Amino acid sequence: MLPEDLCQHGAMSGQAPRENLILRPFSASEARARGLSAADLRIADIRQISRGIFVPHAGPPVLDRLVRAHLDLNPDAWASHRTAGALDGLWMPPWMDDHSYVHLSKPSHLPRVRRPGVVGHRVRILEGEVVIHEGIRMTSRGRTWLDLGHELSVAALVALGDQLIRNPRPEFEGRSAPYETKASLARLLKAHPKVKGVGKCKEALIDMRVGSDSVPETMLRLSLVAHGFPEPQLQIKLDPDDPRSPTADLGYCRDRIGIHYEGAHHQEPQQRLSDARRDTAFRHRGWGLIYAGGPRT
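Below the sequence we write its predicted structure tokens.
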């Protein structure tokens, strides 16, 4: 059945007020389930973007609702590649923000989805690599990382992979386990030796590290190594035995050099106060501190 945001007055065959007929993407089968006629679907406020897929005429469709409509017509398919990454909220480079085309995959023994607005893929899929996330069939985060291997650079794959294997903070994220581990991703790559881009993923896996809490921290680490510096340690505790110890994002313990990447939230008053206490504790122990990111004022 159509949700209430599709049609606020039930079946309106031939006489639907245009402003109330549709507020989200929907499929022809959904329309039929609510008794909407072909005439209802020809009004000016609706446009057909693909065979059996309709959207409001004004503004771009919301991605998750558009995907739901496509999957309603393709029950053997699932969201994949950059579409799955966007739905899962995974980091991807800004040039991948264009979601005018939906990426859908099907098992390799079935024909790919061929319709306007869709990039269809045929893939070999194993158990656990397709999941249900908020009611949408899509690839698991690890499989999405692998599928993006042919589009992303090795550095970008390292950055995305670091976010999959990082240890979460339960008090902020509501989970205690990482999405993936280096071991689980290694098994994934071993199971799919012929996937396009798997070579870049293998190269990226070597450079992935637990402890990069953000993409900029990963890029900073990779930049240091690329410019000839030793690989820095990550999440350095001033007092390793104290769970409440202040921490440096990365740095070099032997030389007592701590490096912090400071994003926009470090300009907030409460965070600035916390950072000041942290920095004072490090300096009292003879550490030098280096800051990257936004300006310190």
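The longest strand covers residues 102-107.
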